[in-house]
Structure formats: C-alpha cells, structure tokens
Amino acid sequence: MNLLRKLAGNRIVFLAILIATMTAVMSGLSPYFLTVDNLLGMTRFGATMALLAMGQALIVLAGGAGIDISMGSILSLSGVLFGLLVWKCGLDVWTASACGVVIGGLLGSVNGLTVAVWDFPPMIGTFATMWAYAALALIITGGVPVSGFPESFAFLGQRTVAGIPAQIALAVMPVYIILQFVMSKTAFGRSVYLIGINQEAARFAGLSVTRIRFFLYCLSGLLAGMGGVIMASWLMAARPDIGVGLEMQALTVTVLGGIDIFGGSGSLAGVMLAVLVVIMMQSGMQLANINTVWQLAVLGVILLGAVALNQALSRKTSN
Amino acid sequence: MGSIPLLGMKGVGKSFGGTRALDDVSFDVHAGEIHSIVGENGAGKSTLMKMIAGVHAPDSGHMEMDGKPVVFHGPADATRAGVSIVYQEPMFFPKLSVVENFYLGEELLTPSGGMDWRRMTEEAAEGMTRMGLSPDIVSKSMNELSIGTQQLTLIARGVHRNARLLLLDEPTSILSHVETGILFSMVRELKRRGVGILYISHRIQELFQIADAMTVLRDGRKIVTMPVAEATEASLVEAMSGRSVEFDNYVKRDIAGDPMLSVKDLSRAGYYSHVAFTLRKGEILGVYGLVGAGRSEMARAIFGEMPADSGSIELDGKPFAPASVKAAFDSGIAYVPEDRRIQGLFMSRAIRDNMTAGLLPRLASGRGVIDRKREREVATRTSERLNVKSAGIEAPASSLSGGNQQKVLLSRGILHEPRVLILDEPTRGIDVRTKSEVHRLIMELAGQGVSILLISSDLPEVLGLADSFVVMHEGRMSKKRSREEAGEQEILRLALGLEPEKV
Fold it and tell me: For a designed S-S bond to A145, which of A133, A237, A284, A313 qualifies (C-beta 3.0 to 4.6 A apart)?
C-alpha cells in the first residue's frame, strides 16, 4: 500500500495508472473504443496537441514565468501562409510545408525578442503576438479557409506509415525522441532546467539565460508551424481560426503532465502521457455522445482532480 | 539569578526522519539575560529556535515558562506567550510601508471597524524611537530602506508587542558596523527592561561583547552552558567543534612579477567611482568594506556581469572587456557570488549538477552530450578535495548545511581553473570549522599561483588571509596597503570613511 502510494505520488506513474483505468472503463462502456479506427482517430487528433504541448512545456520549464499564449495564433498564421504559398505562389506542397514550419519559427522569434531579449513579461509579450497573428491570419485570408491542395498532401494528415498515423510517425515521434534526448542528455537540456530553478544563479554560473530562452520561443513557434501544416493536411484546408484555444489546451496538458509552473522540474514523458489522457477522455465522451461543450468542462475537472489527487499522494509520501 | 527562569528547556529532543536534530537539551534563560546559542552549522541551533518559537514541537522533554510547563501548538501560541523571533533572512513585504509591515495581520482598528492608521503610525513611530531609529521611516516603504535598517525595523516589530523573550537568529550577518552598534544598544535596552534574549551568531567576538551566558550545541546535544566571563575564544571553539581549530592560516609566499589583473579608473554611476588596483599572480588582495560600499558591483564588472561605465581592465597585460559571464570564465576569471541561495545554488538539484553548472560544455562531447561518467568523477573528486559532508554527490544542495553549500559553490569556481578568483563574502554565515577549512583552501589556491580578490566585511578574515588590502567606502577605493603596513584600526577607519589617524 505504501509502495503504491509512493508510486502514485510520481506524476508519470500516476498518469500511467490513470490511462490504464480509463482504457478499462471506456472499453467496458463502448466496444468501439479499443478498435483500430478509434485509436487511429484519437492519435491523429492528439498530434497537434502533443507538438504544441512540448513547446509550451519547455518554455514553462525554463522558468521566468515563461508561457507562450501565441502558439494557437502562430499555428493559424503559419498554416494559412503555407496554404497561400501553395495556392497563390504555386509552390510545391512539401517545399511549402517546410516553409510553413520555418515561418512558425520566425513568428516565435518575435516572442523571443520581446520576452527573452527585452525582458517583457512573457504573458504580455505573447498576448500581443497572439492578437496580432490571429488578426493577420484573418486579414490575409479575408476569413475564408485556404484550400486547393493536391490530393497527395492528404498523406500527412490522413494516411499511415507502418500502421502508425503519418503525423505521429513523421512529426510527433521524431520530435519527442529528439527533445527527450536533448533534455535528458545534453548540456543544453540541463541548462534549461537550471535556468528554470534559479535564473540568477544560472547567470552567475555563466549560462546564457537570454539565448536559451530566445531559442525556446523560436522552437515553440517552429512546433506550432508544424502543427499548422499538419492541421491543413488533416482538413485539406488551412483555416485562419483553426488555432483558437489550442494554446490553452497545450498549457493544460503541460500542467497535467507534471511540469512545475514555476519552472525547473518535470519531464516531456509526463506531458506526452497527459496528452494521451486528454485525447482518450475526449474520444470517450464523443463515443458516449456527450456534447463538446461538456468536454471542455470535463477537461477542467480532470485537471483539477488529477493534480489535487497527485499532490495529496505525494505530500503523504514525503511526510 | 536564583529566581524562576523565564524560559526553561527541560531535556528537549526532536527527530526528523532518522536524524536526531536535538537530543536531551536543557538550559534556562532568565529575564534580562542575553543568552547566546553557539554551534557549528547543523548543530541544532535553528531547530531549537524554531521549537521555542512554536514551529516544531519537542518529541521528548518539555519547555517551561515562568516555571510552568508550556506546549505551543503553533507560532501563534508562542507569540501569545510573549515569544518573538526575528529570522536571519528578513521576511516582510517590500512594497508595503514600514507601518503596514509593523502591524501586518494585527492591525489596530477604529471603533467603527476601519483601519486606525493614525494610531498605528504614532505607535510604530514610538516603537522606532525607543529602538534608536528615526520615527520618520514608518511611512517609507520597506524597499526604500537599507537591508540593515530593514532588519532593525523587524526587530523593533518583534519587541513591540510586549515580547518577553526575543529570539535573534544571526541578526548581524547582514548589518553594517554602524547598524550592529544600533542593534547592540537595542538589545541592551531590552535587557534593561527585563526581556530575555536568545542570540545566535557565528561572530564569536560579538558574543563576547554582548552575551551574558553561552550554551554550546554540537550534533544536537548540549555540550556546556557557561557564563561569558569564564569562556575564552579558544575554549568556545573547541567545545563547538570537539577539537581545536587552527586560526592562523596565513602562509608567507613570494609574490613577484607583473600584475595579473590591473584595474584603472573603473566607474559606474551610483555604485563605484575611479576604482584602481593591481593584483599579482598568487596574491590575495583583501577588499574590505561594508555591505553597499560598491564592492560586489565592482567585482561584477570584472566578471562581465554588470559592465562599468568607464575605465579599463587589463588581464595578464592585455586589455580585457568581458562581454558576458561566459567570456570572463573563458578568460580565466571566476566569481563566487556572495548570496549562495539567490545567486549561487540550484537548491533542488544534485550537488553534482551544482558543481558542474556552467562547466558542462567542457564535460560534453562535440555535440553537447554530457559525459556522465566524467561529470560524476569530477564532482566526486572535488567533493572529496573540499571535504563536502553529504549523503553523496546526488543529494540535493538543499540537504546540505550552509557551510557545505558554500563549499559546493566554491567548487564550481575552482573547477573553472581560474587565473583570477573573485570571492565575495566566502564565509558569510558558516561555522568556524568550515570557515577555517575555506581559509586553508584559499591559501592553498594562492600558493598554486591563483590570484585572489577576497571581498569581505569580516575584518579578522581579511586581516588573516590577505597579502595586501584595499578598503572601499561609498564607492571609492583606498590605496593598496601591504600586510605589514595595514593595521586593524586603520582599515576600520577607512571603511567607516574616517580620516586615517595621524602618526
């Protein structure tokens, strides 16, 4: 019992237990839950969220009240710019995809400039770009989705590679593996954690706090750009409002995944498990025909409940 | 003092997990007595203080006040019984005014239930006056005051509510010479009024000035309680450490050759102006001065952390203008900051991480992947060299005592293998034995040819270690004096901004 408590006090183990429980309950409720179709649909849906959450998680980890509220808008704007590159400029769709990702990175670098270099409060700096980018996406498209992608483009959002959805196999998995490696094995990853714990001490230790944070905002933009392209492929259209609210989902998943909102502790593995928890919950409720409005409320409740239970358990073990 | 003691500790003990922090400690404090508790870091002083302040309850033994057993279920109980504590690190709300901080949580109300600011201001001003502070400061916000005045204000708050027993935890570690004087007269005034005072300090000379009795703790046990008149510095230190400690660590060395670091006319508005000095290879230059004299800011210019407005620095004969901290490290200048908690350590991380922070690029392959094995080796070796007492290099820095935390921070500076090592208050708030170890280390490094800039407001430390001295006062630096030329009196006069005595 004590051991169980101790394990459940660890966020990753806790989330794993939660996922197992949810799987059991939901497959009991609906025989359709554990089918290949549903699993594929779920993971497709989770791909964008996973990409955004990883970017958000690293920014929060690096401390300094770091947060990127503009991710959803970056996703929308880089998505429609990518769409226009194909539609208006006639660029090859895969070249344009790469451009879309780079554009995301550039949009993110503006946050890096205001927040990391000029020391704006992250909330304010990224709020500004959130409104600006969202407006820009609407203005350049006149509010109309950009479409007219070649049929081959659907590959990324709707096909599978070796049985795994393409966006997972080609985007989420490689990104996760690389970032997980960087965060746990490299000097850069260690620096992100150290900065998050004590930026003053990090400066005196010779770590370039500004440069690292700048890079992370660029990375967050890059991942949002990737999300924009994937969303466009999934829907075969680039909608200027597609990213609305996604930054908050990413933040929710980040916190649920055990990233300390004050920075310095947590892991990407936890964040990925939290993505799973959220998409399973949403998929389960879709199967149960629960209104989407309720799904958001349940998301909030899950966040509160999971964090409260987890904290209660870890407090017990530390006493 | 045959009367009933104000506070009686009767065989109290306290364990945390498996460690016995306090074990069977007994002593009495009488009204009007200044009783000091001394011991090395980790000896149990803080646990004892927190027990008396109602934060921890004893798990064996009990406490008495006025001869009657008391049990505190929390700090509020202790406050009600007349116990008041002022912690080492001032805790207050910097943006609120002095009077707001003074009455925080226990505001005086008008009959209609509003805040009675007029009465609070008057009474706070009266409290300040009684403590020898200016009554005008009550309307200022806390962050307008110097760090020392803040501390004195909190002490005034501590005794305002008819406190009968005042606990002071290292009250002078952040006070200037003048402020320490004010504190002492405050404490003596309280003594006269019959308040019992428990006083923790590492500054032994101070205790001989102010305390009536001393209780020595070691490893959670009481070693002895003795009247100050019967104690000597050596006997006290021996009781604290369990063995005698070598105080005189100075080793005479040959210091010759060209300057390693030479600073000319360095200025930064509001901090320091026209600072100039030279430092030779293997030399220890003591920079004495009070907190706020511009010492750290000057050092941070050399370290590339906060550039100077004007002036020049030469390192080994070449012009040197570090663009960043990293550039300074790479050029062979290391700085060990003064505030180990805020500027120094990553408390929740392992000792290993703390030692190698900033050194990682050198412990990593070309692609930035950390060589874990080498990192562990380096950390273990350094930990052994500096005799860091810990549960191993993977233990978090927060689990260490202050002295061992300081050693970890020093390790990081040393691991850079600097040519110039700037130490800013390297022994503040650490026990005598660790202090002596650090002093020996400094001497050893200098012997190996490292040039050391030793910034300290601990005069015996500077006098004991430095080959030559400069004094900073209000941003200005005195001429360099050699060990033979400088006397304690003269250095103090310079630090206080007084004219040197005519000989």
Answer: A237
